[in-house]
Amino acid sequence: MIFKIINDNNVSLEGKGLWMYLTTLTDDYPIGDSDIYKCGNDSRETIKAATQELIKTGYIVKNTATNREKTVRVYVYTINYGQNDHE
Questions:
Q1: Which helix (H) or strand (E) holds 61?
Q2: For 55-85, how does the pLDDT look when each residue is reduced to its tens digit (9 = 90+)?
Q3: Going from the N-terminus, what domains does the chain have, and what CATH number goes with each?
Q4: What's the pTM value of the predicted model, to 2 decimals?
């Protein structure tokens, strides 16, 4: 999958870098928007565009998570290590 995304012209360098960063995190740690915003000096707009690009090309999946009381709702991202949809 790493060589696939690196050679995928449908994904920007920002998207490729974000995907590489996300793959370094442990599977048991849910990563959300606020975590991604803290990991570098890119603007929220750049990160949002990169995450949307990765979702569109099938490299990540966006899920909704809530706390036990269902009072806090956040979006978390999961790496899609399988086949992506745009092939």
A1: strand 60-66
A2: 999 999 988 887 778 777 777 888 887 655 4
A3: 2-79 (1.10.10)
A4: 0.79
The closest alpha carbon to 33, from 81, 75, 84, belongs to 75
| Distance linking the first and last C-alpha atoms of the chain | 13
* 3-state secondary structure (DSSP) of residue 53: helix
**CA neighbor of 79 nearest in space, from 29, 43, 39:** 29
- Within 8 A by CB and 6+ apart from 83, the residues are 58
pLDDT of residue 45: 94
Q: What is the pLDDT of residue 47?
A: 93
Helix (H, G, I), strand (E, B) or coil at 40: coil
pLDDT tens by residue, 24-55: 886 767 788 888 888 889 999 999 999 999 99
